[in-house]
Design goal:
TIM Barrel, 10-stranded mixed sheet, 11 helices, about 35% helix, about 15% strand
Length: about 300
């Protein structure tokens, strides 16, 4: 699927490629947990998450949106770095069990440098190389991988819970997932179609309408559900009333307004000034709480994130 120069670009960013279309990487907060005992907000907000035992990976290096706020590398972002993002033929797909087993092995190698490192707790390191959680959010759109349900099943066999982060453009896949992930994140990048098209730069038609189908589907799904709002100053950090309508339609367990971070490839698409302060995110979250009836439960300043929860 990927040419050598594309693979090299991912390897330089500390990805480890798995088979023909998957990847794994060590999360910043896994490193922080091991080195400084600082954990990400997911551990603080969403039990039973443990940052040092979370395997961040993707089953599919490809996406049907090219969101301007995304820190990941998209096909065409750099001269000469292009690849077929989707779809793949059945004969090009790797088996779910293979993907997970190889991801665990690659992650263990990436973590090996922490063994014996000054300040790293030995017991915590031993736990870290045996992940108890698989987060499908590293890069690309995971639901483009046709065997996503089987991937969740294989993770459960290995005693891992699963978090699935999706852009919501494949409601037909999400609606048929059996089993569902332990926690389902749906990114809502805009409160209206016009802004959605501007910020997501879709490679497909009908992306907004598909997202609306996914939001309508969410109340019927028997799993923990979160709507994430990645908010960019002067672009989509606007119209709390519009977002409130979408939240009330979807009835998620939690809403996670989060500030856009000027990191990675996003630095080549948006100016630094588009990164909002935590105070702006909290103020916007307070408006959403008033409009939706959700409670403002927690905040995490390092990630400029706020947690709203159903009463």
């Amino acid at each position: 699927m990927l040419e050598r120069k594309v693979k090299d670009a991912f390897l330089r960013q500390q990805y480890r490629l798995i088979g023909r279309h998957s990847a794994v990487k060590i999360c910043h907060w896994t490193k922080e947990s091991l080195k400084h005992n600082r954990v990400c907000y997911k551990e603080l907000w969403y039990p039973p998450v443990q940052s040092h035992r979370c395997m961040e990976m993707t089953p599919f290096i490809g996406c049907n949106l090219h969101c301007s706020f995304c820190w990941r590398l998209h096909s065409g972002d750099r001269p000469g770095l292009t690849w077929k993002e989707f779809p793949l033929g059945r004969e090009e797909l790797d088996e779910p069990g293979l993907i997970i087993d190889e991801a665990i092995k690659a992650r263990k190698k990436l973590l090996s440098g922490f063994k014996g490192r000054l300040g790293v707790d030995r017991g915590k390191f031993v736990e870290a190389v045996k992940p108890t959680m698989m987060t499908m959010s590293l890069t690309g759109e995971p639901t483009l991988y046709p065997m996503i349900s089987e991937l969740v099943s294989e993770a459960k066999k290995r005693r891992m819970i699963t978090f699935l982060v999706t852009n919501g453009t494949l409601p037909e896949v999400i609606g048929e997932m059996t089993p569902l992930p332990f926690q389902l994140y749906v990114t809502v990048p805009a409160s209206n179609k016009k802004t959605y098209l501007e910020i997501t730069r879709p490679l497909i038609r009908g992306g907004w309408e598909k997202l609306m189908e996914t939001l309508e589907l969410l109340p019927s799904l028997n799993t923990r559900k979160v709507i994430r709002l990645t908010l960019v100053r002067d672009i989509n950090l606007l119209d709390p009333e519009g977002y409130a309508k979408l939240i009330l339609k979807a009835e998620p367990d939690f809403v996670e307004p989060k500030g856009f971070m000027w990191v990675g490839e996003a630095r080549n698409r948006l100016p630094r000034e588009c990164m909002p302060s935590h105070e702006e995110i909290k103020e916007f979250s307070e408006k959403l709480a008033e409009l939706t009836g959700y409670d403002l439960k927690r905040e995490f300043i390092p990630s400029r994130a706020v947690l709203l929860a159903k009463k």
